[in-house]
Automatic annotation (TrEMBL):
Residues 73-150 form the SPOR domain. It comes from the Bacteria. InterPro entries: SPOR-like_dom, SPOR-like_sf. Keywords: Membrane, Transmembrane, Transmembrane helix. The chain crosses the membrane at residues 20-42. This is SPOR domain-containing protein. PROSITE patterns: SPOR.
Length: 281
């Protein structure tokens, strides 16, 4: 349930259930230790060391567990509630500050072709949650004319590869990583918007991976798609660093707003990237 207009209910643990589990654990540990003592007193022999397996003499330890993979890249939607549109960027930012005082996370969008700076509340990862907040805002008079906006994060790597003339594994990996970053960052902001704690560790890792792939692609043969992707990767890396700074900041702070505005701007640029086929034309 979203923080705005809703109270948070907390559950408590069963006191006696916890005491019982603790008693069982102590009993098991005590029995294990007693068995060891009796074994020593009775002269119980320890098992002989295992003989090395031929060909495995140099193996001293097992390999580390693989790093968990990220979600499969795919098309998804990020939802917002548009609460206003202003000619003045200063007025738009002032409205964002007023919403922050009511525990509502919002951000400004880049100025559009009509010269308007929009104010988006959110993001939300489902349309239902966005619609609920929009309804509450209308009922309370915060923004009577607010409406929901669904921003689609497309994923069509084949169309981008067509601009390069060949399949580029590094560009493919970059597109996957950027798609995952946009999803994880949206989920991070949605949790903060709901007043829940959010871990930015995954975002930092994705930002580092994008920088690594961008470095490799920068040395490759130039193409419109690669050039556009490098620009997006740079914006995403900066945004990841801003989110790391904003992790402990309040939604109304300058640090948090910088991260939020950067994410919305990145979404807009990403949408244009796929709409234009990565050509920038």
């Amino acid at each position: 349930m979203h923080r705005f207009g809703r109270s948070v209910q907390r559950k408590t643990n069963d006191r006696w259930g916890g005491v019982f589990i603790l008693a069982v654990v102590l009993a098991v540990v005590g029995a294990w230790q007693l068995g060891g003592v009796l074994g020593n007193l009775l002269g119980e022999e320890k098992p002989a060391a295992m003989e090395p397996v031929p060909g495995m003499e140099d193996v001293t330890s097992l390999p580390e567990a693989p790093v968990p993979t990220t979600r499969m890249a795919q098309t998804f939607q990020v939802h917002f509630v548009q609460v206003g549109a202003f000619r003045s960027e200063g007025a738009a930012r002032q409205f964002v500050q007023e919403l922050a005082k009511q525990d509502l996370v919002a951000a400004t969008t880049p100025r559009n072709e009509q010269g308007l700076v929009k104010v988006y509340a959110g993001p939300f990862m489902t349309g239902e949650e966005a619609a609920e907040v929009q309804s509450i805002m209308a009922e309370t008079g915060v923004a009577k004319n607010a409406f929901t906006v669904a921003m689609e994060v497309a994923y069509a790597p084949d169309a981008v590869m067509a601009m390069t003339g060949s399949v580029n594994p590094d560009l493919q990996a970059g597109l996957d990583t950027l798609n995952n970053y946009l999803f994880e960052a949206g989920a991070w902001f949605a949790k903060r918007s709901a007043g829940e704690p959010a871990d930015g560790g995954a975002l930092a890792s994705l930002g580092q991976e994008m920088r690594r792939l961008a470095t490799k692609l920068a040395a490759a043969e130039e193409s419109p798609a690669i050039t556009r992707f490098l620009g997006l990767a740079d914006v995403a890396s900066v945004n990841a660093a801003d989110i790391e700074v904003a992790a402990t900041a309040s939604p109304g702070s300058e640090e948090f707003q910088r991260a939020m505005n950067g994410y919305v701007s990145l979404l807009e640029q990403y949408r244009n990237f796929y709409t234009e086929g990565g050509s920038g034309e």
